[in-house]
Amino acid sequence: RKEVEQDPGPFNVPEGATVAFNCTYSNSASQSFFWYRQDCRKEPKLLMSVYSSGNEDGRFTAQLNRASQYISLLIRDSKLSDSATYLCVVIAGGFKTIFGAGTRLFVKA
Amino acid sequence: DAGVIQSPRHEVTEMGQEVTLRCKPISGHNSLFWYRQTMMRGLELLIYFNNNVPIDDSGMPEDRFSAKMPNASFSTLKIQPSEPRDSAVYFCASRTAGTGVSYEQYFGPGTRLTVT
After folding, report:
1. Residue-wise pLDDT tens for chain A (109 aa)?
2. What are the CA-CA distances from residue A82 to residues A16, A38, A55, B66, B69 (Å)?
3. Which of A43, A95, A98 sits opposite B107 (nearest CB)?
């Protein structure tokens, strides 16, 4: 079993749609959680951190469920510019960083 | 700040040749990470350094791979000898380390390596 698992997609959605990505992790000692975004042929960039209380940044909402070892990302009112690969990231022990394989999103006009 | 700088951006070499990838982290960052990304395996952590000291190199695929960080502003990843299966994009990332700081890693633009 992979340490961090994501639905690879691709997700094809129309503009304005709401889309949700899920991620599970296997190490119960994991401490920090993030969503990164990676555009085609570019480097990954931090989208948002994920906290147990849940956090929201504009159209993006991230949730963490430690009991189920599950992370989610919700994108509301999708824009064409949201098309990218979304990477779930888990950090254990302060340094050991595990990236999920990523979920590809295509937003269509 | 210029961000994380990597060189070269593209490298094409023949099997058996030595390849050296270079990284300059963001000034003030004391943790540095090397990643490899392929379509088949995604983004894999190869090695990370804290205060120039290698902490975990368990992701380094084979003895052909080696990494050094002689000072806080420079790191290299060397492949000797290179093989076609080493073809990938290699990213370097850096961040600050310590309690109470963000764990955000800042990635360089990557080096696209092709071994023929």
Report:
1. 788 999 888 999 999 999 999 999 998 888 889 999 999 999 999 999 998 888 999 999 999 999 999 999 999 999 999 999 999 999 887 678 899 999 999 999 9
2. 11, 10, 19, 37, 36
3. A43
